[in-house]
Pilus assembly protein PilQ (Pseudomonas spelaei), 518 residues
Amino acid sequence: MTILTENLDLTALNADESAVSLVTPHQLLLTAVGGPFELKPELRQLCALTSDGILYVSAQHQTDAYVMAFEDQLDHENHRFEVKVCSMSTIKALYQANEYVNSGALSTTETKRQAQVVQLLGEAHRRNASDVHFVVGHDITRIFFRIHGMLWEAEQHQSEVGRELCSSLYNSMCDVAKDHYQPHVSQDARIKRAFVEQLGLFGARVATRPLVDGPLMVLRLLYDDKTKMTLEDLGFLPQQIDAFSRIRSLPYGVNLITGPTGSGKTKTQQINLNLLHEECGGTKHILTMEDPPEYPILANQSPLGPGETWSEGITNTMRLDPDILMYGEIRDLASAQAAFSGGMTGHLVLSTLHTNNAVAGLQRLIDMGVDRYLVTDPALMTSVVNQSLLPELCPHCRVPATAHLNLLNGALVQRLRDLQALDLTYLKGPGCPHCKGLGVIGRTAVAETLLTDLNFMRVFDEQGASAARRYWVKEMGGITKTAHTIIKLRQGRVDPRQAEMMIGPLDFDRQILELTHA
């Protein structure tokens, strides 16, 4: 018996298709239902034996008594096998792929590529990747994982293999695809629930777009992440957590969480709504409309219906006796007007919007076409939160900036000196076992929480967004994302290079708001 270890090197090239093609018509699972070594359901979660002699065993259950007993049974029957250590999600994916092979619903190529995809997604899940990118070029397909906000190359294949992977994924693994896969047009879909559950995910979205040399397909993996379940876990400051508490206490009004794509808006919304549910003791009807639901929430969650527009769905929710309404996103004028209608009729409305700072959320609504008098009414437009996510440094392998000044450009070094933060600053290290070689251990929020009032709205209406932002900081004690970033920089939690790349220059407040950071 030989033991192999599953260990994908994200920086290495892996063009060996046999290493990732798990189940083909001639390579079936002998431990599946009806197989010669059929296992009980609970043991099928821990191991799987393929007809080519590979026994896949969960890394956490190598010494499980039942797994070891099954290995002894194989030895006793002189059945040759090799053990490959892998994740439980990979084992689930094996059985799922085996069902499709036995169904005869797919061609040999589709079956092979589908098995390849499920193993790839299993590895992405194991590494907590938020997105998987298939970039099909003229000669080479490159596959990337987005981990902690950064792209890492996972695999390379011939372009024909990449096209087959995208085609098999879209045609045989998605349940809301309107048409068959067409690499020359943009398409959206969702992975079938059966595959999502097998991989241990809450959901997975698919989006495609043609590029110059070939198609691009991006999968957004949706997790029910139990590791961060408080606003403090996400990285918010005590003052900002108090602002969320104030928002939850409001009887009505429109409240937005804003930020760029992938900034954690939905996760923040989930935690805030769960707190609201707990605080009201379940006595209020919390209703959501999402496309699709991304996280489980203590609320009545409803997806956008087939053929239903966003504004039609929002209008319909008003007829369902809600107390609190959460809309996944304000996308256009119609949905914005519907959300404000909810606020005007006595509902607490929460939603998201794409903007780069809190005050810009108000200007964005006006640019959409919402009446200015509605946006500037502090009793109606009650709060705007803006957030971004920064990679958080691994405390075990981070390195002091003062010992590696050659890695920083002179202007950044000067900005750190001006902030009196250089001696407190750390840079991303080389990686270690604690961070799985990445140098970062997750992402942390930097945010702005704006609770509007009459004076703020008057400044905004009469003098514009820049003057209102200055007023918010100087008169209302607002903390900008730049200021929040500097706090975390001085704590040694973020790399200043990544911070400036995602938030902007560290002296941005001084430039825009005429402020200094003590």
The longest strand covers residues 381-393. The domain at 108-223 is CATH 3.30.450.90 (Beta-Lactamase). Residues 2-26 have pLDDT under 50 and may be disordered. The chain has three domains: 43-103, 108-223, 238-513.
